[in-house]
Each structure stands twice: as C-alpha cells, then as structure tokens.
Amino acid sequence: MDKSYFLDILKSQVLIMDGAIGTELQKKNYLIDVTIPEELNIKFPERIVDIYSSYINAGSDIVLANTFGVNPIKLKQNGLLDRADDIVKFGIDLIRKISPKVIVAGDVSSIGEYIEPLGSLSFDEAYNAFAFQTSLLQKHNADIIIIETMTEIKEVKAAILAAKENFGGAIVAQMTFSKDGTTVTGTDLRSFIAMAESLGVDALGLNCSIGSKDLVELAKVLCDNTNLPISFKPNAGIPALINRETFFPETKEEFLESSLKAYSYGVNMFGGCCGSDPEFIRILSSRLKNKPPKIRKSTNKYFLSTRIKAIDINEIKTPIVIGERINPTNRSRFQKELLKGNLYPIKEEARVQVQFGANILDVNVGIASVDEVKLLTNAVNQIQEIVSVPVCIDSSNFYALEQAVKNCAGRPIINSVNGEQTKLDLILPIAKKYGAALIALTTDDDGIPKTMEKRLEIAQKILKFADSYCVERKSIIFDYLALSASSSPEQIQETLKAMKESKIRYPECKLILGISNVSFGLPSRQTINSTFLKMATDTGLTFAIINPLEDWTIDSALAKNLLKNVDKGAVKYMETFASFRKQIPIIEDKKLSLDQQLYFAILNGNQESVSDIVNQIIACEPNSFEMVNDNVLKGLDVVGQRFALKEYFLPQLIMSAQAAQTAFAVVKTILKKHEKFSKGKVIMATVKGDMHDIGKNIVGVVLESYGFDVIDMGINVDSQSIVNKACELNAIAIGLSALMTTTMPEMEIIVNLRNTANTRAKIIIGGAAVTDKFAKEIGADAYAKDAVGAAKYIKTL
Amino acid sequence: MITVSTIKIPYDKLLIRLGYWQTKTKLNKKTDESIKEILDLAQKLIKPKIVTAFENTIVNEQEILFNNGYKIKSASVASLLRNSFRAYGVGITIGNTLEDKRAESLRKGEIFSALILDAAGSVAAEETMILVNAQIKIYEEKNGNKLTKRYSPGYGDWVLEDNRQFLSWLGAERIGIKLNEFCQMIPEKSISALIGVEKLENKKERICG
Hints:
The complex is a heterodimer of chains A (797) and B (209).
Chain A lengths: L2 H10 L2 E2 L5 H6 L12 H4 L1 H14 L3 E3 L7 H6 L6 H15 L4 E6 L14 H17 L4 E7 L2 H14 L3 E6 L13 H10 L4 E9 H14 L4 E6 L4 E3 L2 E3 L4 H14 L3 E2 L7 H11 L14 E3 L4 E3 L7 E7 L5 H8 L4 H12 L4 E4 L8 H15 L4 E4 L3 H10 L5 E5 L3 H14 L2 E5 L10 H17 L7 E4 L9 H17 L4 E5 L10 H14 L4 E4 L10 H7 L7 H7 L16 H10 L3 H14 L3 H21 L5 H22 L2 H4 L3 E6 L7 H12 L3 E4 L6 H11 L3 E5 L7 H12 L5 E5 L5 H7 L3 E2 L3 H9 L2
Parallel strand pairs in A: 1-10, 2-3, 3-4, 4-5, 5-6, 6-7, 7-10, 13-14, 13-20, 14-15, 15-16, 16-17, 17-18, 18-19, 19-20, 21-22, 21-23, 23-24, 24-25
Antiparallel strand pairs in A: 8-9, 11-12
Helix pairs in contact in A: 4-6, 4-12, 6-7, 7-8, 8-9, 10-11, 11-12, 14-15, 15-16, 16-17, 18-19, 20-21, 23-24, 23-25, 24-25, 24-26, 25-26, 26-28, 28-32, 29-30
Chain B lengths: L10 H7 L11 H17 L3 E11 L3 E4 L4 E3 L1 H6 L3 E10 L3 H11 L3 H32 L2 E7 L11 H8 L7 E2 L5 E2 L3 E10 L1 H8 L1
Antiparallel strand pairs in B: 1-2, 1-4, 2-3, 4-8, 5-8, 6-7
C-alpha cells in the first residue's frame, strides 16, 4: 500500500486495529505444540486464521500479521531461521485470504536482548536483525509496518532505521510505557517522540504494559507534543498471575470509555493489547469505526533528546547553553587520559557542566593517535548514561561522527558541516538518516568570508543542498562565526549583521556561535566573552557554545565599545584590563611527592590516576619497585583499617583494591618479572552445588591488590579439582566460598581431600552462612568474615 | 488484584546493602557518583514480575494441607501458620537482564560495577516482595485479617528441594523463574515465599490469654 494512501485514509477517518494475539493464543491453548507463536503460520495456519478472522469480523481495519518475533536472533534460537521466509509469507497471506480489504501490518517487536551499553548486542547487530525482518515484510507485501512493545529507545532507533531502508510503506512506531510515562529503561514520552519524529516515522503510538485508563493520559501527552497520527493499543489492565491464571482486570466497557477519551484528544488508531479480545474490538468498532479524526491543535516543537529526557528548544530561554569543556584542545592532562581510554574526566566534565547550567554538551575527543571512531562513540554512550542533557557530537572525522550519531540514544546535534562540497555530501546524509540537527558553519573551501553577504551566500548554498538531501531546514543551525576582536574588530559587526539578516531570510533556521573565539589575544577574556554573548543574544542567537563554569553576568561598556569597533585599537579597553591576570587554581596534587600521590590514589580509590603515577615512579626513582610496593600496601592497610571501623564500606574497598591492582599491573608489565613479583598463588572457588560468585570475586580482587596471584576457578567447582589445582600450582592457600547452608558440607570434603594430598595450601572459608565455629569444626585453617579478613590471614602465610 | 508495574530502587537501601553506616561511613563524592551511575543503569535493567497463589489451609504440627491437595511438610512452617486459615504463595523476579549485565562486568573484571549491580538487584527484588506483601496486607486487612511474616523454602526445616513443588503451585515458570539442579532459583534475584493469613481476633486472644 502506498504510504501517502494510508496517510490520506488517516486524515479522513480513524482506523480500528486488532486486539491481543498472544493472550488469545494462550487462552485458546493454541501454543501448546509450537516453539514460538510465529511457527503457527506454517505449522497450524488454521489456528492463526481463527484469531485473524475473529478480529476482522469484529471490525478491525488493520490486522497485525503474526510476525512479532521474526528476527534472525529469535528464530535461530528456536531452530526456525530457515523458515523465516515462509513464516512471514503465510503470516501476511492468511490475512489477505480472509479479507483483501484489511490493511495488513507487518508486526516488528523487540529482539529480546538489549543494545550496548545496557546489553551486549551492538547497534549494527540489532539493525541487521530488523533489516532481515523488514526486508521480508517488504518482499511479501505488508501494507504498513507497526513496530511495537518496545522498551528501549536504541532498539526503536535500529528498528525504524531498518524499516526506513528496507520497506516502502508507512511506518508506525509504538513503545511501552509505565503509568509514570517512562519505559522500563527510563525513556520518557517526549524523548520517544523526538527520536521517532526525527527518524521520519509516519505515525507513533503506545501499546501494552498498562490499562487503558492510565494509558489514555499518556496518549494526551503524545497528542500535545506531536502532529503525527497516533495509535493507542492498551492492555486490558495490568495482568495479575493468581492461582495459575492470568487476570486482566479491565472490562470492555472501561476500555471503550478510555478509547473514546483518547479519540477526543485526537488519537487516530485504536486497538487493544494483552488481555483484550474480539469483544473489545467489536465494541470499539461499534462506536469509532469510520469516524473522522478529531483535529488536534498543531504543535511547534523542536526536540533534542537523550535516552531519558527531551528538551524543546522553543521552550527554553535563549541563549541555550552548549557546554564546551569536553574537548582535549590545549589540555594535556585531558589528552593523556583520553589516550589511555580513560573516560572518567569526560564524565566529570559532563556532570559539572550540567550542574552549572549546560543545556547541551558538546563532545569532542579529537586528538592525534587516538581511535576517534571508537572513543567518540564510547564517550557519547557514557555521557548519555550519566546526565540527561542532549549531546552535540563534534568531530571532523566523518566515520567517528557517523558511528557516534548512530549509537546515540537520543536526538543529537552534529557539529558540523560547512559550505565545502565534500563535507556537504558526507555530512548531510548522516543528518538526514539519523534525524540529527546540524550546525552549519558559513565557511567554504576559501576559508572564512570577510563579509556578511558572502557568509549568507554560503548559508544559502548549504540550504540548497540540505533541501536536495531532504534535511529539514529547521534542523539547520547556522554559525556565522565569531572571530577575534583583537585581530579583526570589524568582523564582529559582520557576524552580528549576518545573524540579523539570516533570521529574516531563513527564519526556520536557528543560530549558534562559539563565543570564546571573540576574546582571543585579549586580557580579561571573560569580560569580552560575556558582553559579546549579550550582544549576540539580543541579535537572535539561539545556542551559545561556552564554558558554563565562567561568569556570564558581565556586561561591560568598555568591552561593548571594543566589540562595536568604537574603541579603535582597543585603547580604552587595554587601559583598564591590560594588567588583568586570571587566577589559576592551585592543584593540590602538585605539592605531593610521587610516593604520596600513589598512597592517596590507593586510599581514595583513584584507579584512573594510578598508572600515570606508577609510570612516573618507574621513570624517576631508583628503587621504584619498593616505592610502589610500600605505598600501595601502606594505602591498603589504611583502607583495611577504615573498612574495619566502617568508615569505608564495600564499594570504597573495591575501588581501592582495583587501584592497587592497576599499580601492580603496571609494575609487572614494565619490569617483566612476573614470578618474582608474586607473593604466592591463591586458589579461589565457590564450592560444588553453589552458583554464587560475587563474594568470591570481591575477595579475589582484594587479594590481587595485595600482590597475590589469584586463580579463580569459578562457581560450582568440583572438590577434587580444587585440591588438584592447589597441588599443581603449589598454591599457598585455597579460598572457598559458599552462600548456602546446603552447600557448606562441600567445604569439609575439600578439607579432607587437602589433608590427604601433597599440598601446603591452607584453607580459608567464608560466605553468608559460614562461621568461625563451622571452620573449626571442619578443620579449615581459617575463617574470614570479609575480604579484608581474608587478606589479613593470607598475608601471614 | 496484586500487580507490579515499576519498582524504584531506593539509593539509601542500596547503600545499606553495601555496608554503609550512616553514622560512621564517610562516602566521598566520587564513590557516591559512581554508585549512582550504576544504580541508574540497574534501574533500566530490572523488569519486576510477580505471581501469586492462595488456598485455605489446615495446619497440623508437622505439615500444612492446602485445599487443592498441595502439602508442605515442615514443623517450622506449621509453627508459623498455626493460627492461619489461609496462605499465600508469592514468587517474584526482576528478570535476567541485570544478571546478564553483572556477569558481563565480572567477565571484564569490572568488579565495582558487578558489586553495585548485584546489590541493586537484591534491593529491587526485596522492594518487589515488599510491594506484593503490602498489597496482600491491604486486601486481607479490609477483610478483617492479618498476615504472618514471610517464610521461604530453605528456612528452618522447610527444605530447599521443596521449592520445586512450591514454585509449581505458584506457576512461577510463567514469570520465568526456574530452579537449577541445586534448587537455586534462576534468575538469581528471585524470591519465593509463603505468607499466612490469620483472623485479626487471634492476636487479641493471645494477648488476653
């Protein structure tokens, strides 16, 4: 079905969708002899025909084909990958045979695994899975695609992108929300709208999870925030599993009442999800079928978003602050950390800038010899998980830019394109494909134009190409470039004039400036920056790329005269500010010697700084090994004491232990004297029958931090294997963990096996139910109530 | 109707689970931020689900007989339910996504993340159980009844192996709870428990008596 035909229908009438398929199949006991519901299409088509027919007879205009989980990952798990084509073909054809008039929707839902960083699936793997499914839906002529029951925004993104690229019909995207208006992974309604709209879906909606009474309130939020058609497919209430029965509490009358309310808000498509049945659809159909849709008030939103939150640019007071501090230019320590792949400084900058009012964060990790493709994506992923402001992805590396924009869990800004033809041809398609807003610098192959006319000419060229690549004009954010007032004072006015004219010529396009360039080479830079920001804001600036930690309340007449080029040669300005010196905060670490720095890094669990310190010690100190060893152990001893006094708790202990581990790892790598460095081998295992691992791993980390070689044999380990390994490696100790009383007797077996074997290994035991008394009873050498206790004992061996 | 849609993992309970003492532990900014960061992640990875069953019961000294024929042989459970006329069985889980992430962290040597995820999962499971318990309590109190404390397979003389039959009674497989060969629940962050229902007067009788 032609996309525009479908959208035309929606303009003239509301459409009735189907109700639940899954719960109906369960209710009728149709799933008893298939591995997944989709197998019915080829194995027992009469059963799925029964469900389809019941909804068509009840009045459904749209029926979802039974293709919900036809993605290669799920199919492979169920041994049905080679039947995918038939499953989709029959799923669609069976509906057509019942009624050629019904709109057949290809149903696409979650893969069942999360995409990184929540899960381990890569974005490309998810995309490929959806591409497989949507290609089949195209091949077998589904009329539209409905993406449904999605809880994770990156998965929605992958599904929409795949559908857009492999399917020609209309695409409806639905997500599943809780009563509070967020998905289980934290995405709110407006973030969903931001993502779905920017990727170019034809309609969006809500399905599953909660009942119609709660879902209708969320539908109202959708109606108020998008101009796209909306679908509404609630559950018949939240299900309860009681006495082996699933109860859906909502009646069809309650369901109808909410649906009519949704209709009054302007919803366009109505159906049901889990727990609804043909009677729900019949009553919906009797009241809503063929009705004209309620005309909604048009909204004018400009969303940028993250995984959990969207901001509407039109709602925020300008200038909208884009924090500029995630940028390694001229920051050697920041660069060093990035080269090591350490993202902690980036996360810290993100948090601080948001605390100081940044609405958006610019993310730039471009330094020579770094894998920017990987690093930029990692940085964007990490930032999006810790702060809820959108990102402005800043790179001159096309590949890095595309990867980061693709993997972004929200709608970002791309920084940037300019009037160079090559860049236009590379960057505009990325902005279009991923629905990003785009900063457009008004420069070209000839550099920065001197006049406002020339800059506006470049802007016009950029818009022409944006039009040809179908990038919406409102997604373009022009930067008319702030140049240094010291070298080109006349240029400041050209910039401001260009902005003013741009607002007249291209009113749909926003304006942005990187502010700090303007003060380059002048004293008291913030005086000029802040004054210039006010002037630019008065001229219509939308976004300002600035350091939010600076003082932006300064409005200086002297600076204004300089910027207006009234103060020729900056004479007056320099009279006042020439002797200005910015105070540089003293960094405490600098005062400390290297050994003290190491000690405090261990004490404070600063794993990120340890490698640097140890490397410096090795480079500078003659007795480097002793210095590292002594200070790490000194730090750990104090950590242990604080842990005993409860001044530190487990997370701090682990952070310090991991810092110590890092220190020893550096020493080992550089000195290449593994064996001599080791303080002895310790076998760690959770006993047979016990699957718990976290306690054992904590002890292992702490022991490694003291320089022991820990051989972790894992969980549910055979007793004889543990003793054999201790003999083989000449271990000094065996650490045993058991969480459950039922598995504790295994510890005694190991003690007995050890006693008859040729090993010096002492046995130390621990775990939730293990006690000192029990240790003595079974003849273990020691009991430790926690990781510090274990280390304390093993250090004595 | 006993349902759960979302569970918020409380930060203060997570800290306590990790060994934090309000009057003693000095939590620094970096640790605080790092824990909150992983808590945010954990919050996205939990999918709480519940299943319940209830039956009227007859309690003897050593066993509890349910109306539907299900039977628990345990003196400690019998003692708990000695005044009960009905019992609820509850199974809850937060799903396996968080545990997968924890396992991934352990594989990568990210013990800090694994530790926080593990603790957050435990708190989430407990919070889910608290919510279910509260819903049952409200319902039963409306009917003039009160609840006993919760009791789980593996406590006292109620052997862990009985969890298999108990979960079967609940239909816990429908929310994805399974038992491994050692009778440990998978997902690990799952809880099964029995709660007795007594007439409110019983307490008064005991106090007076």
